[in-house]
Design goal:
79% of the residues lie in helices and 0% in strands. It is built from 3 helices and no strands. The chain is mainly α. It is elongated. It has one domain (2-89). The longest helix has 29 residues, at 32-60. Helix 1 packs antiparallel against helix 2 (32-60) and helix 2 (32-60) runs antiparallel to helix 3. The protein starts with a helix and ends with a helix.
């Protein structure tokens, strides 16, 4: 059961990275320069966090504490992305 939750988390981080990458020119109505600046930082970050979580999950198993590092990093990255997006959207 725990492994399924990790898999859902990994897929979710990769979906977020894909969404950011596919909408890199007009992310939520931002201009092209700001959108590219945000996506060049956050899309690879989400891919790396998902990949690191997957690698740690395969190396140590679902009941180890090592894959939790990926969960913690992803949990910290999502609010940072949200804060930057809200700041950029409402600072016009």
């Amino acid at each position: 059961m725990l492994s399924i939750l990790y898999d859902v988390y990994i897929i979710l981080t990769w979906v977020i990275a894909g969404y950011l990458w596919l909408n890199r020119n007009q992310l939520l109505g931002l201009d092209s320069a700001r959108s590219r600046q945000i996506t060049t930082i956050f899309a690879p970050s989400f891919l790396l966090i998902g990949g690191a979580t997957a690698a740690l999950l395969m190396a140590f198993g679902a009941h180890s504490l090592w894959p939790v590092l990926g969960l913690i990093l992803g949990t910290l990255l999502v609010p940072i992305l949200g804060f930057i997006l809200v700041n950029q959207l409402f600072n016009h």
